[in-house]
Amino acid sequence: MRTENWSLELLRSGAERLLTIFILIMSEAFTQHPGKAVENGGAFKHVMAIALDPTASYKRGIVRCIVSREGDVTKSGYVDRSEIHHINGESLESFVIGKRVEIAGTDEIIRNLSDGGLDFIGFEDPDIFVEDSGLMHIYFTLPFLDKVKKHTLVHLGHAAGKDLMSLKMTMPVLTADPTTYEGAKEVSIAPINSQGVRLNLFESSKKEIDFTYSTVRIAVSEDMGEPWKFGETVFHPKEHDMPWIGGHASPGPLLPKTFIDVGENKLLGIMNGREANKRVGKEIKYGMFSVGLFIYDYERGKIDWVSPEPLVRDTEAKTITFASQFIETGKGEGILYAHVDDSFVRAYTLYADGIKALLPR
Q: What is d(CA 67, CA 125) in angstroms, rounded to the nearest whole number?
């Protein structure tokens, strides 16, 4: 065998061994549960974005239900109209959809935000946060279509109450810029830092010459119920050579230190990433959305690391695996919930020992 051919074979075999090792580690990092975590009873064809109530031992919560869908989720321009409904479960693996969540003061707030003829398409992608005082906060996406300018204004909405049955809506904690259309959605709540504030993370957007990218930004919160301040962008997909997250980045849940401790003032988090957009004729086609990992320094408001490869990609996913909730269930184990193709919610068990092998030293 010629020397250069031998060297090429050695490199190839080395790469194959590394891939094999990576696959073995991944197989020890999580398992995919069979079936669906949320039973819709035939009322809704598509459900997604589960958020569970810690005050009820995570046996109840809320979920986004798609009322109508126009277009194709794999291509730019599709429109989902949504509601948020209650869910209840006898276990952490099976929930049943109940009545629509009623939030006092909704009509007035939506009327104010839709001034100028904007089309509100419904509540999306909720998150639940409960303060030590017991006050419950709900955060959700508030999308408004501007049919004339063919843009969408996306605000991070807010409601609060003593429980899920007594919520009252406020103005958004983050309001989209009407000139750049840079908005806010998909919040990750950070611990309070030494300055007495939370440097929360959220998904925003940035229009570039080629495409509009989903980015991760900081939101400075001194009060969880009052308006937050827009902070800097801490992850822009275009600035990193990571194909799995080359077009869109969205922060998922931050994992408790009791599950995996990655250092002082730092938390391991779930990152939702999508491959770069592609132009196919006059259409913009989306890539695959997968679930990866990141390390967040919540004292400084910096993302120290994003996994070079995704962690979870559902076996049935054609275009989307998107995580929304994590529950620690025991020593070294927890359940991650993600929705598949914006259609149904799946549960996955994560294993701390397997995930640790994927982290930087």
A: 14
Which of 223, 244, 239, 221 has its CA nearest to residue 231?
A: 221
Query: Which amino acid is it at 214?
Result: S
Q: What is the pLDDT of residues 12-33, one digit of tens each?
A: 455 555 444 444 445 589 999 9
Return the amino acid letter for 297.
D
Q: Which two tokens stand for residue 50?
A: 């589960």
CA nearest neighbour of 345 among 82, 46, 60, 126: 46
Residue 17: the pLDDT is 53
- Judged by phi (left if over 0) then psi (alpha if -120 to 50, else beta), residue 253 lies in beta
Q: Cβ of 283: how many Cβ atoms within 10 Å?
A: 12
Q: What confidence tens digit (pLDDT) does each residue in 299-353 have?
A: 999 999 999 999 999 999 999 999 999 999 999 999 999 999 999 999 999 999 9
Q: Tell me the C-alpha distance between 270 and 325, whole Å.
A: 9
DSSP symbols for 246-263: SSEEEEEEEPPTTT---S
The vertex-251 CA angle with 250 and 254, nearest 5°, equals 165
Residue 233 parent element (H or E): strand 229-235
Q: Mean of the pLDDT values across residues 84-109? A: 95
**Residue ranges in the chain assigned as alpha helix (H):** 3-29, 106-113, 352-356
Find out whether 236 and 206 touch, Cβ atoms under 8 Å. Answer: yes
Q: Mind listing the pLDDT tens digit for each residue in 207-254?
A: 999 999 999 999 999 999 999 999 999 999 999 999 999 999 999 999
Contact call for residues 304 and 314 (beta carbons, < 8 A)? no
CA angle, corner 346, sides to 278 and 260, nearest 5? 95
The amino acid that residue 157 corresponds to is G
Alpha-carbon span 261 to 278, nearest angstrom: 38
Q: How far apart are the first and last CA of the chain?
A: 39
Strand partners, 152: 145
3-state secondary structure of 95: strand
Which class for 248: exposed (0-12), middle (13-18), buried (19 or more C-beta within 10 A)?
A: buried
Distance between CA atoms of residues 190 and 138, nearest Å: 15
> Helix or strand or coil: residue 280?
strand
